[in-house]
């Protein structure tokens, strides 16, 4: 019975398949008839153009005034726009501002916004949004790490330092609580009555909806360049004042750039969509961009190979070397205005001693690092300012040359002298902190071995943490040695040299030298290009003599993207831009 039923069912299904096949063929037999039935006014929807890439780390803050790393800035640079933008050739071009004027003395700038520029929610972008954003970064209650970039504004530093004594006492109390293992005190809030008079004196003012007046403390040759940097981006004042947490979720996120944030699966992915309110939307070809949050470079590379990622710029080092050797058509390598280095915490023994710091810096074989470990065409670094920075004439790095050398015998001698000066018979246990990333891991392992072999240091332990955790620990001084890197915010050596002034917000090495501070101040305030550059050359030499940071190499930007992806460009101090990218 069962067998007969199976035969019957087989015949039945076979017949149905034949009939179904005839019906399908009949429906498609007359394509001209189908075309006649189509509504000529209805377009067939085009397939979405979606670019997939990897942001590598979860953003810390997608807020122009609070961002502090490339895990923030790559997204921010695509969803916001400043008064000016960097064109693909690196020149300054109009952004939200269509035109600008400057006084003869270079102290007053007047920016005129474009007609009709809008936020992603439809609100008009106004000069008041820029004034609000710049003063937000300076407000001491907001603790912006990049507040110092606004010190170029008249009275900017004075506003940021209102209540400085109170905040200093608070920070000291927090450090003491951490050492004692006790509960830290609550952060004090500087009263609005104390802030408002200083806020009103800051040199940025909206004269009307479309006109922004900026007054500088001193004439700054690279100020226009700064206006394309993310700390100078606007913030929707109305949105921010009604919801201070607007930037933490996609549902409340408002921006003014080529893209807008439409989905944020924390620690998984971010989705950006084309912002139809953007004034230049006609040139934006992509419908969406998906940025995954994948810390493991090997995993991301596998996803690229299997077609799950279209653009990737954090490559495993051995992959980079092979792609270069194979001259892979989808591989691209760009010069980058950035330096890979190690912080040495000058507040912690033995790195409070400059001889010890120099010993560790002189015991690294940089050529081996770039040729056999990093493998991305990087250059060994013997100064902190990378190539590509202008001097009075020529290149700043080329003119300065190498400011120290590798010398293992001298390194051993300096280490012994430094330890003796600190009353130490041997080194304490040392920990090298780095953020989770395969390239940082293999470099740390290589340097750990070099210190063992070249310096006789056997007790360096490696510790890896998430990128934001690393940043937080560096800021709090909770480390001994840490991996770091810096991409120039603007094209002038000052973007590096003002990092290590005493009490500088990014002075994670806790370095202090009054002579260095004075030279940096001279370079910031002088109107004479020759005086400026000479002061910066002297400052860099002092920094390398004291060596609170150890330069390792000058970055390149190796990256890959599929051959059907076009329009990607990489600026010397930015990550790859997909603003005008397309998928063919």
UniProtKB/TrEMBL annotation:
GO biological process: peptide transport
Pfam families linked: SBP_bac_5
Superkingdom to which the source organism belongs: Bacteria
Keywords: Signal
Region (Disordered): 26-64
Biased composition (Basic and acidic residues): 27-50
CDD domains recorded: PBP2_OppA (cd08504)
Residues making up the signal peptide according to the UniProt record: 1-20
Protein name: Oligopeptide-binding protein OppA
Gene that this sequence comes from: oppA_1
């Amino acid at each position: 019975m069962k067998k007969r039923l199976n035969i019957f069912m087989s015949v039945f299904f076979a017949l149905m398949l034949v009939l179904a096949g005839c019906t399908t063929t009949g429906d498609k037999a007359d394509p001209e008839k189908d075309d006649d039935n189509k509504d000529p006014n209805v377009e067939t929807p085009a397939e979405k153009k979606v670019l997939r890439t990897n942001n590598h780390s979860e953003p810390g803050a997608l807020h122009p005034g609070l961002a502090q790393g490339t895990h923030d800035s790559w997204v921010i640079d695509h969803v916001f726009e400043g008064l000016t933008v960097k064109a693909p050739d690196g020149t300054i071009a109009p952004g939200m501002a269509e035109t600008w004027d400057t006084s003869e003395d270079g102290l007053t700038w007047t920016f005129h916004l474009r007609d009709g520029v809008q936020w992603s929610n439809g609100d008009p972008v106004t000069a008041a949004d820029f004034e609000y954003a710049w003063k937000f970064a300076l407000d001491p209650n907001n603790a912006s790490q990049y507040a110092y970039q606004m010190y170029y504004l008249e009275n900017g530093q004075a506003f940021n330092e209102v209540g400085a004594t109170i905040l200093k006492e608070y920070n000291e109390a927090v450090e003491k609580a951490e050492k004692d293992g006790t509960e830290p005190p609550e952060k004090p809030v500087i009263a609005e009555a104390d802030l408002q008079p200083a806020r009103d004196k800051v040199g940025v003012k909206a004269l009307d909806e479309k006109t922004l007046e900026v007054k500088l403390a001193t004439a700054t040759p690279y100020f226009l360049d700064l206006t394309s940097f993310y700390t100078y981006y606007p913030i929707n004042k109305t949105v921010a004042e009604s919801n201070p947490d607007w930037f933490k979720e996609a549902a409340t996120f408002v921006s003014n750039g080529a893209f807008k944030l439409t989905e944020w699966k924390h620690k998984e992915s971010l989705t950006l969509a084309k912002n139809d309110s953007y004034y230049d939307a006609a040139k934006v070809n992509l419908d969406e961009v998906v940025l995954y949050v994948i810390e493991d470079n090997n995993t991301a590379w596998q996803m690229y190979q299997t077609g799950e990622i279209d653009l990737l710029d954090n490559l495993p080092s051995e992959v980079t070397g092979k792609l270069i050797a194979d001259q892979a058509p989808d591989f691209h390598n760009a010069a980058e205005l950035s330096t890979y280095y190690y912080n040495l915490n000058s507040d912690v023994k033995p790195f409070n001693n400059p001889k010890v710091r120099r010993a560790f810096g002189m015991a690294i074989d940089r050529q081996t690092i770039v040729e056999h470990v990093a493998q991305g065409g990087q250059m060994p670094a013997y100064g902190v300012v990378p190539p590509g920075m202008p001097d009075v004439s020529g290149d700043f790095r080329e003119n300065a040359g190498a400011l120290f050398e590798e010398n293992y015998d001298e390194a051993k001698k300096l280490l012994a002298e430094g330890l003796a000066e600190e009353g130490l018979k041997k080194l304490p246990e040392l920990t090298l902190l780095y953020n989770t990333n395969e390239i940082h891991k293999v470099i740390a392992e290589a340097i750990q071995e070099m210190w063992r072999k070249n310096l006789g240091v056997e007790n360096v332990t490696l510790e890896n943490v998430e990128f934001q955790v690393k940043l937080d620990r560096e800021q709090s001084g909770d480390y001994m040695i840490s991996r770091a890197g810096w991409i120039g915010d603007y094209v002038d050596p000052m973007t590096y040299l003002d990092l290590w002034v005493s009490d500088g917000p990014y002075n994670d090495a806790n370095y202090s030298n009054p002579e260095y501070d004075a030279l940096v101040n001279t370079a910031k305030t002088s109107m004479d290009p020759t005086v400026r550059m000479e002061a910066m050359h002297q400052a860099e030499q002092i920094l390398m003599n004291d060596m609170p940071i150890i330069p390792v190499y000058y970055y390149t930007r190796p990256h890959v993207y599929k051959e059907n992806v076009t329009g990607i460009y990489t600026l010397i101090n930015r990550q790859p831009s997909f603003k005008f990218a397309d998928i063919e």
